[in-house]
Specification:
Length: about 900
């Protein structure tokens, strides 16, 4: 193990020569902070010298149950001695002591999650050396008391408040108001009191190394201070908040943190010293201006802590004694931007007029800023268009495509849930789908608040501005449907105790009770819920977003670098189709025809399914033909000149029928109301029929192509509607391009026989209307068996589109709703699964897709291949579909189209 280098130096030696060993590409070894300190030193920026202990050392230390790997402590002691030589100073020296900071730094930034100790090396002797060197006793004692405070808190977990209380006491006694007014004597007394607090609050059994004559004593030995501080930083990798943060941000637990031991520089040495944080551009809106704050005569976290009012970085150059350092900082900004070719975020300290760089990294930014900065940098010649497109995070784009809370308003957060579907909404609370529809019809915006939603809630979900559920996760019914519709949704708001019957919500942990009609605001991008109306700002596809997406299109549609990456949309009404075209969709990848049977058409389809009067059924079917033809005319007209994949009816028929349990209840009610026998008999007959349709496992039951085999009338009616609409539009001078898709095929023969009758209907309509129609017929691949025989099916199909939701269900044998409600969370927690396979495509399911594409393409080279499951809108999955499986397009809901365009371009770039 110890063959690996454990320690990397950065900064200069005693001759001012750079001895840096690391670089910015080494963040898995040196952590982000260490790698970038090395990089800055390497390019000649002023970095206080030091060394970095690797992340791997931390991993070894933690996996061995917090014990040091052999030889590591010796190596650290040697590195420390080396640093002392480089500086010509020694830790703990009573004449001229070296002081260091001990800083954590993981491969990914985890702001505020882990620990840092400053001013290490001070003790009763070395503080005298510091006084002698600086001739500033106040500064020396202040540094010492800060060190004891930080060390006690970070390394030994002593309650920070104890120290703050002591300071408050001291200020009262001294009759001063601010810390800065405490005298050197006051601070010296505080040091003694702090050491006392330390002795009283550290447990001797845990820390025998701190015992002196049977008493706990603050460690005076700098070597011991250093070892304990490093151990604390290593330990902070596994503290609860760090673990939680990693879980939320998808950072693996096994990376470890590096430790940087670095010579202290002091921003608190008087009026020509300062400390600050800054960005090389404005991270909120992307403007090309220096952005940040500084404090004169301050140290470390004072700027961020907000104890004193900071000054804007642009004023730094105007402060007397800081002019030169301020100008130097501006030069460093430019050097960093040119070097990293991106916006950087930095921490600096000025010690008596001299600038020192303490940290840099590529800075986080809002979506708006990300776009502006990327485009500006192309204009400035700093990066290429490809780099600009590669840099914008597709997931972040979502923020821009929906209305958002006005960022300038301070929020009074009522509760939090999961950020299930982005966008913000404000409306009156309603507790049922019917109330949502009724209230919205009166012109009131509503937020539908439910325990969880189900398919019966669809009307209400459509009517609502936003949806909130107290249960269910990011892939619950509410979340999936809301994302599909582009409706903001916050799920799993556990604090909401909903009583739908009483039409009220109690908010646990508060006295608050909300009633129907009360206004709430939800933000589906953050999961925040606020009582009352938060002002919203709306979003549109203009300006910078349009520019980046135009560049993305150029990249993904180009014939260079392999197969182009197309983006289609899942849409089943003209409004969605129109929206998707505005968002840049090239075609419709999935039109779900059964969505056209909802609303007032539910009655017609129910009559068709349940009636045993043949004439009545025929009439219902005729009526369905009429309305569907009209639907397809509208849709195909909107999409004129562009392909539109239409899937034949897919769900089990009972989904169109009443819930038998509800019907049973209403029969019982009618009975007790004394309804007449004839009515009751009719209702009971209806119930019997509905019951007869029920299946014990409908997901694996009579649905998809199986319906075409058993009840061919319904799908063939749809084919007739599609074909008739097409014929009519051609006559009217449009260019309709429907593609008929047969769902849930497992066996080649299912497809062959279904296609035969489809072709017959098409031929009939051609004859009747006297037009020539060219309508491709393809297969929806969503069962593992179909993927295995894809070559065989391909000989009879014009295209394949992968329904990856069902493919995931059937490959895993998971029923999605049950899996997500009952055990996927546990699987994730236990790391049986690395991610939810319904969110990002699982690699084994992806392999089924890849194999089927390969087989299909071999058997039928003119075929095209797409993905229309929800994964088609997930950036990570999109890259895999294009680059691993080799599909031609992904299809997603309208609001995901811009995200998919960007992700598709990034897929293409990654191939290079
Ligand atoms: P975080 O990761 O929480 O930002 P840092 O390791 O960056 O923690 O330390 C926090 C702050 O402490 C820095 O921003 C800087 O102001 C101060 N600091 C750290 N090391 C030194 C040093 N060697 N000299 C002066 N100040 C330091
Ligand atoms: Mg911090
Ligand atoms: Mg920092």
């Amino acid at each position: 193990m110890s063959a690996q280098q454990r320690i990397y130096r950065f900064g200069t030696d005693d001759h001012g020569r750079d001895v840096t060993e690391g670089s910015s590409s080494m963040n898995y070894i040196l952590g982000g902070k260490g790698a970038n300190l090395a990089e800055m030193a390497r390019i000649g920026l002023p970095v206080p010298p030091g060394f970095t202990i690797t992340c791997q050392t931390c991993v070894e230390y933690s996996t061995a149950g917090n014990t040091w790997p052999e030889g590591a402590l010796d190596e650290i002691a040697e590195a420390e001695a080396d640093l002392e030589r480089r500086m010509g100073k020694r830790l703990g020296d009573p004449a001229d002591p070296l002081l260091v900071s001990v800083r954590s730094g993981a491969p990914f930034s985890m702001p505020g999650m882990m620990d840092t100790v400053l001013n290490l090396g001070l003790n009763d002797a070395s503080v005298q050396g510091l006084i002698a060197q600086t001739e500033n006793p106040r500064f020396a004692w202040d540094s010492y008391r800060r060190f004891i405070q930080m060390f006690s808190d970070v390394v030994l977990g002593v309650d920070a408040e104890l120290f703050e209380n002591a300071i408050t006491q001291k200020k009262l006694i001294a009759g001063v108001r601010s810390d800065a007014e405490l005298s050197a004597e006051d601070l010296e007394e505080l040091v003694a009191e702090f050491k006392q607090i330390f002795s009283e609050h550290v447990d001797a059994t845990d820390h025998p190394e701190l015992l002196v004559d049977g008493e706990i004593v603050f460690p005076a030995d700098p070597a011991l201070q250093l070892r304990l501080a490093i151990q604390a930083v290593f330990g902070s990798w596994m503290n609860e908040r760090a673990i939680l943060y990693r879980k939320q941000n998808g950072i693996p637990d096994d990376l470890g943190t590096a430790v940087n031991v670095q010579v202290m520089v002091f921003g608190n040495k008087g009026a020509t010293s300062a400390t600050g944080v800054a960005f090389t551009r404005n991270p909120a809106n992307g403007a090309r201006e220096f952005y940040g704050d500084f404090l004169v005569n301050a140290q470390g976290e004072d700027v961020v802590a907000g104890i004193r009012n900071t000054e804007p970085i642009s004023d730094l150059k105007t402060v007397e004694g800081l002019e030169k350092a301020g100008a130097e900082l501006e030069r460093v900004f430019t050097v960093l931007e040119n070097h990293y070719r991106d916006m950087c975020d930095i921490e600096f300290t000025i010690e008596q007029g001299r600038l020192w760089m303490l940290q840099t990294r590529v800075g986080k930014r809002t979506a708006t800023a990300a776009l502006k900065i990327a485009i500006d940098m192309v204009d400035e010649g700093l990066i290429t268009r490809e780099e600009a497109v590669g840099r914008v995070d597709p997931a972040q784009l979502d923020q821009l495509l929906h209305p958002q809370f006005d960022a300038s308003v301070e929020l009074d957060i009522l509760a939090r849930g999961l950020n299930a579907s982005p966008g913000a909404a404000v409306g009156e609370i309603v507790f049922s789908s019917d109330d949502a529809v009724a209230r919205a019809a009166e012109g009131h915006p509503v937020v539908l608040v439910r325990w969880e939603t189900n398919p019966d809630d669809l009307k209400g979900m459509v009517a609502a501005e936003g949806i909130l559920t107290s249960h269910g996760g990011k892939t619950s019914h509410a979340a999936v449907i809301a994302r599909g519709m582009g409706t903001p949704c916050v799920c799993g708001v556990e604090a909401f105790q909903i009583d739908a019957a009483k039409k009220e919500v109690r908010v646990s942990g508060t006295e608050i009770v909300l009633h129907e009609g009360d206004i709430i605001s939800i933000d589906g991008a953050t999961g925040i819920v606020v009582a009352g109306a938060v002002p919203l700002v709306s979003a549109e596809l203009t300006g910078d977003l349009e520019t980046i997406l135009a560049w993305a299109d150029e990249i993904r549609l180009s014939e260079d670098g392999g197969r182009p990456c197309h983006v289609r949309v899942n849409a089943d009404n003209p409004a969605d189709a129109k929206l998707a075209l505005d968002f840049g969709a090239e075609a419709i990848g999935l039109c779900r025809t059964e969505h056209m049977f909802l609303g007032d058409r539910k009655n017609i389809i129910q009559t068709y399914i349940l009636s045993d009067d043949d004439a009545e059924r025929a009439e219902a079917l005729q009526e369905l033909l009429r309305v569907q033809t009209e639907d397809f005319v509208q849709m195909l007209k909107t999409m004129s000149g562009r392909p539109m994949v239409i899937r034949l009816i897919d769900p089990p028929l009972h989904e169109f029928l009443d819930d038998p349990r509800a019907l049973e209840i209403s029969i019982a009610k009618r009975e007790s109301d004394g309804a007449d026998e004839a009515e009751l008999a009719a209702l009971r007959d209806r119930l019997r029929r509905i019951d007869a349709m029920s299946e014990s496992n409908p997901m694996l039951g009579l649905r998809g192509v199986r319906l075409s085999v058993v009840y061919p009338d319904l799908p063939l009616m749809q084919v007739r509607a599609i074909t008739t609409a097409t014929a009519q539009l051609i006559k009217d001078g449009y260019d309709p391009r429907p593609e008929i898709m047969v769902p849930l095929v497992a066996i080649t023969e299912e497809h062959v026989q279904t296609r035969e009758v489809i072709e017959q209907v098409i031929a009939e309509v051609e004859r009747d209307r006297g037009v020539k129609l060219d309508i491709p017929v393809g297969t929806m691949l969503e069962l593992p068996r179909a993927c295995l025989v894809a070559d065989d099916i391909a000989r009879h199909a014009d295209f394949f589109c992968f329904g990856t939701n069902d493919l995931t269900q059937t490959a895993f044998g998971f029923s999605r709703d049950d899996a997500e409600a009952k055990f996927i969370p546990i699987y994730l927690h236990r790391k049986i699964l690395k991610g939810n396979p319904f969110e990002t495509i699982d690699d084994a399911v992806l392999e089924l897709v890849r194999m089927a594409v390969e087989k299909g393409r071999d058997a039928n080279p003119t075929m095209h291949f797409g993905v229309c499951g929800e994964h088609g809108g997930d950036p990570k999955s999109i890259v895999k579909f294009f680059n691993v499986a080799g599909v031609d397009y992904v299809s997603c809901s309208p609001y995901r189209v811009p995200v998919a365009r960007l992700a598709a371009a990034q897929a293409k770039l990654k191939r290079a």
